[in-house]
Design a protein that fits this description.
Helices cover 44% and strands 13% of the residues. The chain is built from 10 helices and 9 strands. It is globular. The structure holds zinc ion.
């Protein structure tokens, strides 16, 4: 299909987090006939897990992912266990919300460490331990590779290849990948690794645009069509594997979209998804 299915649009709630609380975001999505939503844990905690689940059921929204778990590496074993326990709670919450998957930002170097390989081993071990908890409960875990500029502080899994390697090693049951174009569009191996992932591993698809120039490493993501990513081409590559899930708009934009009228932001997301998605 040339144009994306407008029914497949989902809003990651970070996109509106400066203007609206979670209740307002849910009501906004309903008002604009957007069927998918991906909430963050802090927003869910503020509104209350039960109330969030009730609103989502009431409005028949699809939770296309729950943001987020991960952050496995830490200096001490006790700290790693604390983080693992927190991930167990994230799995429980994702189940309560009926989320399609728990999205994992795996974590970067522990304080004071320069041991990137050791950190990646800690991620592998943390994932393995979390899978023992999540698999019997039936909550899929989606590894989200992050752009290498975040390797130190947020995620030392930076490529689709690394994510695929982890799936190979740990097994596909209840484990897959969240493909975020902001983090992966530059990768020369994108198409090969998407084909390698195949339908079974493609758990989520996040879209926005890469602005050139980018003014902030974290909070200057672009609206679809304002940057250099061939979003349509990448979406078609993912759908060529049989992916029929949502296209989740995730825009951190302190300089622009977080300052705008949130209803206008949602209208723009809908229009740009159709035009460029
Ligand atoms: Zn993402």
């Amino acid at each position: 299909m040339n144009h994306p299915d407008p029914q497949k649009l989902s809003i990651n709630t970070a996109t509106l987090r400066q203007q609206w609380d979670l209740r307002q975001i849910i009501e906004g999505c309903v008002r604009h006939e957007i069927r998918g939503i991906s909430p963050w844990r802090d927003q869910v905690a503020a509104l209350g897990l039960k109330e969030t689940a009730r609103l989502i059921r009431q409005h028949q929204l699809r939770v296309t992912g729950y943001c987020r778990g991960g952050m496995f590496p830490a200096v001490t074993a006790e700290q790693r266990q604390t983080r693992l326990n927190d991930n167990f709670r994230a799995v429980d919450e994702a189940l309560e919300l009926g989320a399609a998957c728990l999205v994992l930002v795996v974590g970067g170097l522990p304080a004071g460490s320069k041991d990137l390989n050791g950190t990646r081993q800690q991620v592998r071990d943390g994932l393995s331990a979390l899978l023992e908890y999540s698999r019997p409960l039936g909550m899929p875990l989606a590894i989200e590779p992050l752009h290498p500029m975040y390797a130190a502080d947020r995620a030392c899994v930076n490529t689709l290849k690394q994510a695929n390697d982890l799936c190979d090693e740990l097994g596909d049951e209840g484990l897959g990948i969240a493909v975020d174009l902001y983090h992966t569009w530059w990768d020369a191996d994108f198409h090969r690794e998407i084909a390698r992932a195949g339908l079974k591993r493609l758990l989520a698809f996040h879209i926005c645009d890469w602005l050139n120039p980018t003014q902030d490493m974290l909070e200057d993501r672009g609206m679809m069509g304002d940057g250099v990513i061939d979003i349509r081409g990448f979406r078609q590559a993912v759908e060529a594997q049989g992916y029929t899930g949502f296209h989740e708009v995730e825009i951190f934009s302190r300089l622009n979209w977080w300052t705008k009228d949130p209803d206008q932001v949602l209208l723009t997301c809908k229009a740009r998804h159709l035009e460029h998605g």
